[in-house]
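Checklist before submission:
- one chain only
- standard amino acids only
- sequence pasted in full

Submission:
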Amino acid sequence: MASWSFLTNHARVLVHIAGDPVARLRDIALTLGITERSVFRIVDDLEKAGYLEKQRNGRRTQYSIQAELPLIDPVASSPSIGEILALLVPVEALRLPIDAD
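Returned file contents:
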């Protein structure tokens, strides 16, 4: 297996949250093989950029992905985050309001 990935850790965290919006940071870190501190920083980055919203639900946090926002990348043709996630997450696992046009 390659020691690198086409997806950044930010994208990998977002894909994980798309499939499990109530995932704990510890579980995301274990699944992705990165530190919990890294996941915390990535979630904070995604929230500050507007791609994620957090809501406390008792002792758990539920995440909402703002799927309509465009991907900010100088090379990409500005697809929405939802369009990208629809390619990466199996439809039955995707928990986002995405237009299937």
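Reviewer check: The longest strand covers residues 52-57.
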